[in-house]
Amino acid sequence: MEEYIEGAGGTSELALLLLKHVDVSLAGFMDDSQYLLSALGFLNRAQVRNGALRPALLAHGMMRTHTGVLAALGRSADPCQGFAREMLINYSLVLLPSFLCAEPMPRHAIQALKAGLLSALINISLNFTDAQVLQPLEYILKKILPAAMAHYSVLWRMVTMLSTLGAVVASRPFKASRMYPFWRVILEVAVDRLPVLTDYEAVRESMRACDNGPCSKIGGKSAFSRCSGCYSVYYCSAPCQKADWRLGRHREACATLHASRHTDLLRGRELSFMRALVHADYLAQRTEILCLQIGYLNQRPDVDIYLLFWYTEGKVDIKIYRVGVYPPTYDWGIDWAYWARRKRASGGRMELHLVVTTCWAGGTCARMIPRRCRDARVSEGLARIAALPMPRGGEDVVGDMYEPLVIALKEEDEGSIH
Ligand SMILES: [Zn+2]
Ligand SMILES: [Zn+2]
């Protein structure tokens, strides 16, 4: 690879040459698709061996070119006249995830969607049955697209695109295609999240909570000042900021939070939409979540817990864990001591909710989006119900047995935010 880079005069030059080569072969592949095959084959190998090439390719418009390749190959009329078309699509689809999810997420996914990725993938779903096409396509439909839909701009773009593709999506051949079950999940997620998207855009001011634990006041964002050191905590007043700096030990965390801001790519509108999404999903599943918590706390009354929101395969999946403990094989670098301290300082008005999304190439990353309550009635109620003798049969029965208590608890929960 070093020789290729040297020959081209640099990484950026090589990336430009490769993309030019793909564009030219795409225009002429009626004559000889061998060229396209060699270009895609090279990209597949280069991608694995040279990480530096990926950003260079992306900077030179890889997503547009690559989506063009998929669109041309996926049509029902065969542009290659039988030559290696399945293999070409296989190469293109195998390459796609690491580019789609390259950082900063979700910029490249948006570029691909704008270039017509959805209709290209729908066509491929319609026109192919070969395993070497369907296997990498299934991975993208199952693991990559639904996970990307937790991002505001991807979701917005997907919803818009899907509405223009309505006729194809509703067609009988599409519904009969082998990939349809995966598309159905994508469509359901789009429909489910549409109200969250609409509400999010209608409400101008997001809500905040004072990060001085003993205060925890909730109100409109404009009523709060943000810490100018880390830009990640909010206070209702100067005394609250002072108290949290010393007593809440924000002093010790501020610099670390500031540093992580540069590596944390989820911010601004993407982050505030994720808060809205987590909040909507929390409210929709509140009964189940409360029962889950009651069941868990009954078995382990003295344990600090957190809720894990998985946004990696379409609809959210919510699980419960002990603070500081990850599900096996994950390490997201969460400062548990910091969060446990904040939770304790809030006197039952903060619940830890950890949100997991997909980052590059299908890997996961997590960030804490705590739930903030107006008072401690819910956490106290949870502990009270959990202390009652539990029926045999586990968490499933908790809901039936303590239904009135859980409903009462839900009513006390009004006005919580994420
Ligand atoms: Zn700070
Ligand atoms: Zn305050």
From TrEMBL:
Segments passing through the bilayer:
none
Q: Known PROSITE patterns for this protein?
A: ZF_MYND_2
Q: One of this protein's Pfam families, by short name?
A: zf-MYND
Q: Which InterPro entries match?
A: Znf_MYND (IPR002893)
Q: Which residues belong to the signal peptide in this entry?
A: none
Q: Which GO terms describe its molecular function?
A: zinc ion binding
Q: Under which name does UniProt file this protein?
A: MYND-type domain-containing protein
